[in-house]
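Practice problem: OmpA family protein
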Amino acid sequence: MRALVISAAVAGAVALTGCQSTGNNLGGVEYDKTALGTLIGAAAGYGISKGNANTSRQNNRAAAIGAVLGGATGVYLDNKEKKLRQQMAGTGVEVNRNPDGSVGLIMPGNITFDTNKSNIKPNFYSTLNKVAQTLTEDTKSGILVTGYTDSTGNDSINIPLSQARAQAVANYLIAQGISPTRINAQGLGSADPIASNATPQGREQNRRVELSIYAIQ
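Answer key — structure tokens:
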């Protein structure tokens, strides 16, 4: 069981831990995008507990981004997800919905960075421009950029490299007009692989940058 800490723009902060849920059920409410927005809005400022295989990924996301308030949150993020799916079609970027309700973008290493480099590939600029276009439409979203590496090397190399990659993406989005107050960047090294590190193809998938987009007050 784990806690998802969702900080709210309200006076005070109260920690609350619920019971572990199963399947597509979160805190007693069946996992539905709009319903999830309502649930998180009602629980803003509290911790919601949910068993999930991606524990550390969700904890890091939840700890880094601010408030999610109100039933309209789900609809707002639905619209962002839909537009980003359209824009990312054919780019190699995967758009999904994270279990905590945020919109997730997975940007694999074959289109983002060369091996052991933190300079964005020039061909990736156009994709990031499309992301920035959607995120600058309003100021209602917060963005967490997370960098990852494969398991080659050790933490003393991988964590700074993943942080530099995440920061490079964050800096580029800021340069496109997104306020730096809306973006956090973090590097988690080889943690939370999404594919096997035993093959070149798997390692390429694990060398990635992820964006998590939240609704904020």
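Discussion: Residues 155-175 form the longest helix (21 residues). Students who identified this feature from the tokens alone can consider the problem solved.
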